[in-house]
Specification:
This protein has helices spanning 2-20, 29-49, 61-84. The chain has 85 residues and is an all-alpha fold. The protein has one domain. The longest helix has 24 residues, at 61-84. It starts with a helix and ends with a helix.
Length: 85
């Protein structure tokens, strides 16, 4: 059941990040959910490294959205470089 919740929350986080981040993004349910889940993991890792979260504590919804936006920004930068080649 935890996995199902992670996928659903990841999809919501990915969807919000896509709405907030301008530009063309990879689409589809699976990619959106993966971006949201990866954003949550990134926010948790960075938050723990910066001392915002205790060990074993995960990022909240807003932190996960910020992490997903960071991932989308990296995607846009990498896509911009590859299309210029």
């Amino acid at each position: 059941m935890t996995l199902i919740w992670a996928i659903l929350i990841g999809f919501l986080v990915g969807l919000v990040a896509k709405l907030l981040m301008p530009g063309r993004d990879p689409g589809g349910f699976i990619i959106t959910a993966l971006i949201g889940i990866a954003g949550s993991l990134l926010a948790t890792f960075l938050g723990q490294a910066m001392g915002l979260y205790a060990a074993g504590q995960s990022a909240g919804f807003i932190g996960a959205v910020i992490g997903a936006i960071i991932l989308l920004a990296i995607y846009h930068m990498l896509r911009g470089r590859s299309s210029a080649l």
